[in-house]
Sequence to fold (128 residues):
Amino acid sequence: MKELNSAFMVAIEGILPYPIKYEGKLFKPPPDAPWIEIKHIPTTTEPLQTVEKLGGILQIDINHPLDTGAPKLLEDADQVKAKLGPHARFAYQNQSFTVRRVEYSQILQKENYNLIHLSIYYKATINF
Fold:
């Protein structure tokens, strides 16, 4: 699973020029700047002799300071969706993942930020 997380990081880094909070890592959000939070939610595992097939959701939360407006937040969400849209495929070492679908949330407020959740549904293959 660690390698699959690395594949996600490679796919995500560079889409938006914001600091990224990964699960299990210390992170202090910038007070007046956008940032991203990434959560990996595995949903299925199908182990076979030479390969493991996985499914899950990669949740990407894009956070913008309050009062910056919705247009830039929605533009960022569209940029992520363009890169990680349905049928996008990424490979890293001995594994690959393919995006099945992408869903947006409405714009929400949390603490001092507006945020939008993107749920990236994927299927993955890990070769042994």
In short: The radius of gyration is 15 Å. Strands lie at 20-21, 35-47, 51-65, 89-92, 95-104, 108-110, 113-127. The first helix runs from residue 2 to 12.
